[in-house]
Specification:
globular, about 30% helix, 8 helices, Phosphatase 2c, domain 1, alpha+beta, single chain, five-stranded antiparallel beta sheet
Length: about 250
Amino acid sequence: MIEIAGGTVTGSSHQHKLNIRNNQDAFGWHLRTGNNAVCAVICDGCGSSKHSEVGAKIFANKMPCEILRREREICMANSATELAWDHIRWRALSWIHDLFLPTKDYYLFTVMGVMAGLDWITIFSIGDGVAYLNGNEIKLPEYPNNAPPYLAYELIQDKIRNPQPELYKFKIHAQIPVDEFETCLIGSDGVKDLAKIMDISEFWTDDRYFQNSDQVRRKLAVVNKRKGEQLGPLVDDTTLVVIRKGE
């Protein structure tokens, strides 16, 4: 049995009266019937793109189902695994192509995800983010000048800052047998600031987050509450999804 919860809050840098912008983060998950497997994804839209929150929301909801469909291949740890991830990536790129909107305005976003299947737990990404597994933070790549690779750069080659093709493929950061799994948290970059303010383990130890579907968002909103003219401490959009093994 798997328990899952998630929430997001707009960063305070987007709330300033002269810089009001949408939350460019989005999250979604697909929970298989019987609650025995789930895939969750967080997409963090590019801050300099006009409407990156649109692509982030679409793909945070489309990708988990596609990834979970390929659970068996992903967990085989052989050539089939790489082919499965490549298939998922090209499926996503085909969706972008078929939606007929300017790629650089709508579809520049990172992908941070976790698949908790029948046999294995896999944490993956394209770009940056935050991840904890069984209470331990997983070291993820950092990119200079806050310029991570985006999946859709493959469709706009002239805009790629770093032409290395490996940057735009899914990277596996951790994979453990499901018997060893207890908790997992994935987040957008804003979770780094959140972890400086509070004990991040609260999200997987406190039952209330799994009993009320809006509780994660409420907590993030309280942490980032504005005090008079002082903006909240979560400068960037902050999004997290937490999963734990249930009874």
